[in-house]
Design goal:
By secondary structure, this protein is α/β, with parallel strands linked by helices. About 55% of the residues lie in helices and about 10% in strands. About 30% of the residues are buried.
């Protein structure tokens, strides 16, 4: 059975299923869902807990044995299985199907996985787990939804923003400072709960309490670049630089995005469907709807020149001197971070 995250509390109040499969890429929301199931399991008598993490050469027979074994004290047990890669492999797939069919009333399975693509969700092992229990998909909180999410979290702890434009600006202020990081947002919400218990919050209180807690993510930078959000792009590059991120890693991420756009651009010109090209290039999530507009506003020539400029920038970042033979790219700025911003801007706001 497929279940939405916001329906979990209602489901648990009616009783436990024999198996829960939780998948997604929001660590905070996954952890909260796991904690709710643990509490419900303990209340239902599953007082023993075993944890397995799938790594290379994982012994699947040990998991199957734990599912069938009885406690020395007759207690029921919660068995947690973590699959960080989301790929159990052939042996793991067979083991998971066996687990799904075991129907042991004294063992409750709790399986956590990262985000799964459509093909994996149609696999035999995942279908078996879904049919045997509950599959809970944890969707990411998109940046545009983050102010509302923060408002709901504040309401849950007895707080709210003042009405009107000031309240909206305060929520937007928090969302911008945490830069899409839900764990950081959660910490700031808890801090506001301690500082101003059960009160209406104004913008000044929020600004005084909330530090610049952004945890800048190299790969979130690509979203700003694709969206053409110049202000956010500049803020993120400054943030990554301030946090001591390696310029070579940022360059690699930006270049991979440009290469992907060029492949999609050429594929569209060859008559291939955009949806098929996105799958081939492993584009999903928020980037999926941003690639189309980016491909439309960019030309092959702009993307090719961007890659030539990136080659120059790569040599600079690595401390190499001298031009690449046949290279007609413009000279990058003296500061590599200025060059990274210039490179990202070729996608975000290309000059005609």
């Amino acid at each position: 059975m497929q279940l939405r995250a916001d329906a979990l509390e209602t489901h648990l109040a009616r009783g436990l299923a024999g198996c829960y499969t939780i998948f997604g890429d929001e660590p905070l929301l996954i952890q909260e869902a796991v904690d709710r199931i643990r509490v419900a399991a303990r209340a239902a008598g599953f007082t023993e807990r075993s944890v397995f993490t799938v790594e290379r050469s994982f012994d699947w027979s040990s998991l199957l044995g734990a599912n069938q074994s009885m406690s020395l004290f007759g207690d029921r047990q919660l068995i947690e299985l973590r699959i960080p890669t989301g790929k159990p492999g052939r042996d793991g797939g067979e083991a998971l199907r066996t687990l799904a069919a075991s129907n042991n009333p004294d063992a409750l399975m709790l399986i956590t996985l990262p985000r799964l693509d459509a093909a994996t969700q149609k696999s035999a092992w995942f279908s078996a787990l879904s049919e045997a229990g509950v599959a809970l998909k944890i969707d990411p909180v998109e940046r545009a939804q983050l102010p509302n999410w923060i408002g709901q979290r504040l309401a849950a702890q007895g707080q709210r923003m003042v009405a009107g434009e000031e309240g909206r600006r305060a929520l937007q202020f928090i969302a911008e400072k945490v830069e899409g990081n839900l764990l950081a947002a959660h910490q700031e919400i808890q801090k506001l709960g301690l500082l101003y218990p059960e009160s209406a919050l104004n913008l000044e209180q929020v600004q005084d309490a909330v530090l610049n807690v952004a945890r800048y993510d190299v790969f979130k930078l690509n979203e700003a670049m694709l969206a053409g959000d110049v202000a956010r792009l500049a803020r993120m590059i400054d943030g990554l630089r301030g946090e001591g991120e390696a310029a070579v890693l940022v360059l690699w991420a930006v270049v991979e995005e440009i290469r992907m756009l060029l492949r999609v651009k050429r594929g569209v010109a060859a008559g291939k469907p955009v949806a098929s090209l996105l799958r081939e290039n492993r584009v999903w999530g928020p980037r999926e709807r941003l690639v189309g507009p980016a491909v439309t506003r960019l030309t092959e020539t702009v993307l090719e020149r961007a890659l030539a400029f990136a080659a120059r920038l790569d040599r600079q970042v690595k401390g190499l001197r001298g031009a690449v033979p046949g290279d007609r790219a413009s000279e990058p700025p003296a500061n590599p971070w200025d060059g990274l911003f210039e490179l990202a801007m070729t996608v975000a706001a290309p000059r005609r």
